[in-house]
Design a protein that fits this description.
Keywords: Endoplasmic reticulum, Lyase, Membrane, NADP, Transmembrane, Transmembrane helix. By secondary structure, the protein is mostly helical. 57% of the residues lie in helices and 6% in strands. The protein binds zinc ion (2 copies).
Amino acid sequence: GLQARPSHPVAMARPRKLQVWAGCSVGGVQCVQVRGGQGERRGRGPAQPLRAVPTMLLRLLHTQLWISVSRHQTASSKHRIVGKSIDFDQVDRERNWDDQIILTALLFYVLNSVLPMRQGLPWWNSGGLVLTVLLHLGPVEFLYYWFHFHRALHHHYLYSRYHSHHHASVVSEPVTSVTHPFAEEAVYFVLFAIPLLSMMATGTGSVAMENAYLLYIDFMNCLGHCNFELVPERLFHLFPPLKFLVYTPSFHSLHHTQFRTNYSLFVPFYDYVYGTMDKSSDELYQRTVHGREETPDVVHLTHLTTPDSLLHLRLGFTSVASAPLSLKSSASALVARPLAALASLLGRGAFRSESNRMGELNIEDMGHTQWRRQRDQQGPCTRRRRMATRSGG
Ligand SMILES: [Zn+2]
Ligand SMILES: [Zn+2]
């Protein structure tokens, strides 16, 4: 079992998370309005503590996009890296992925309120870019590599209490990247604070660079754990050293399946230097990036019965999909109906929604977007089915 049940500082807000998000959205809009109304100084960013809010919403949206895209992509075997299904324990373990985003926003809110140097931060400063790149490639990556490598290999005590929580997910999802006990998460916060605090200390900080660094962390985290290969081979041909600077989904996937290789954070350089990269990294990358054609044994065609059933799909929001009956009709009207209308407008046919293994069989689920037509054209549907039955189909 997992001893380290993470008790997160924002855990109290969990039952009210939807309200927190909604409240923040309103705050974000107000923040933008206040900014517009006050007339900013030239080239200066907003001074309000609420500046952290738009960043938080952007990060939530970005991660949710990764979740949906990766579930859609891994529903097909083409570029999928690990072919096993995800179990319910993992879904439960990873469903509070947004806690760390909310916590970061709270930290920034406090910093923005109390530190005078955070008032009127400029939009851009190129010194901050140079500093962040150097500090990330140097101390952040290096410290993470040694911390990770050393601990995993030599300190079973720490591994079993902390890092095993992240490694419990062999088939990773984008949000596996942020699934850690709180003590471990705090260590990552300290690591990522190195470039951010250095920018502040040297006066090279800027709104753009702060946000770009946070988004870089999120992007690379989701990339490494999305479980399908998408980094185009062309990029490595155009710029060969990229191999040492950017990891790929298959590279980090090997860390989850093999445990004792590919320890790097986002930049595989130190794995190459110290010879800890997995020997099969290149081969797995080649195999998954080119893809393979596997025909499923069973295809399950399903169609939506009501607009709400769109929200029950695995492609969307885990917290809603896992408790479909708890959805209030007002929330459904607000979210599900426009989404369903959009889906039936955009989608012409069926889309892949999930794939599962049942014994020896590979089962693919296809969802049909035209829920209204399916419902309204009961007649032709039934007629076609009858014909199929008659012809022995
Ligand atoms: Zn690890
Ligand atoms: Zn990982």
